[in-house]
Here is the input.
Amino acid sequence: MDIQLEPHLQEKLQRNVIHSTLKQNMELVSKLADECFHECVHQFPSKMLSKEESKCISHCADRFIATSQRVGLKFQQIQHEKVLQEKKQQQKIMKQ
Here is the structure.
């Protein structure tokens, strides 16, 4: 039983999804920058990062992104399992 939205509502929904995704990505980048900067940069002797600071930030960003991806995949897996459980429940109800 799929519900078809009117075209203007579909467009509005799509804009909201895009806006939400962009906002989440911006928050993720901001959090990454904040965490890695605080972890890796402890002094401000110049405008440029030292070689060690750059290396630390790169490694930190790689870890942060890998962790975020793992969390996202796990969330998707949990959501998929919930959908399957709900479908099974609905099928049981329909059979009764």
Summary: Residues 51-95 form the longest helix (45 residues). The CA atoms of residues 40 and 54 lie 8 Å apart.
